[in-house]
Design brief:
Layout lengths: L5 E3 L7 H11 L3 E3 L9 H13 L9 E6 L17 H16 L4 E6 L10 H15 L3 E7 L3 H10 L6 E5 L8 H9 L3 E5 L6 H4 L2 H10 L3 H11 L2 E5 L4 H8 L8 H7 L1
Parallel strand pairs: 1-2, 1-8, 2-3, 3-4, 4-5, 5-6, 6-7, 7-8
Amino acid sequence: MTPDLLYGTAWKEDATERLVLAALDAGFRGIDTANQRKHYVEAGVGAALARRLDDGTLRRDELFLQTKFTFADGQDHRLPYDPRAPIAEQVAQSFASSLEHLGVDRLDSLLLHGPSRRDGLGPDDHQAWRAMEALADRGLVGHLGISNVTARQVGELTRLARIAPRFVQNRCHASRGWDAEVRAVCAAHGIVYQGFSLLTANREVVAGPAVAAIAARHGRTPAQVVLRFAQQLGILPLTGTRDPLHMRQDLAIGELTLAADERASLA
């Protein structure tokens, strides 16, 4: 079962283990990471998981674990695979490395961490997706998806995929109707849209009068209002907060329901 809120682990470096541990203790059960050392410390995520799995606080079946395969152009020199290998082998090597980092034998979701080109999908994307499907065929991953994509690319992926994408994950900008074009394609194909940077990419909205008025009316924080608005819009939000109080507040947004006119003021 997919949680209705994910904890994002990008850009946390040496604090990754501590912050993931805090997120788990706050109540997060969905964790998003990537095998991309440039922006993630996947092994740090695994160290936090191991602590709570080993002490019996959590069971593996309570967790939703999602990672990503990243092409070499999106990596630095710390690659989790042989860059000279065929794309399919790179995917397999990266995934095996992720399992080792996270200390598990199966993942709930694997995303292609951005297509190989800006416009459309290329041969490398096709090969990567087929390799991801092979992992799903072996029962090593439950769902597949893609991130950092255009509406056209999502449409292309639905046509080429043998195993349909379950998730699309994008940076979500209010100025683009909260990524309305991509969300529309996702809705048409039964794909769950995951939104990240909902707060940091929309600082003016978060600090704006519409959000402030709703927050005051409900006795909530602006961040809670925006994250709950996203959920009610059909978005599965990611939050990467470092503050344990904010973690607990984010997890409490299900208690908040925005009225139609309040949602309209933010749309």
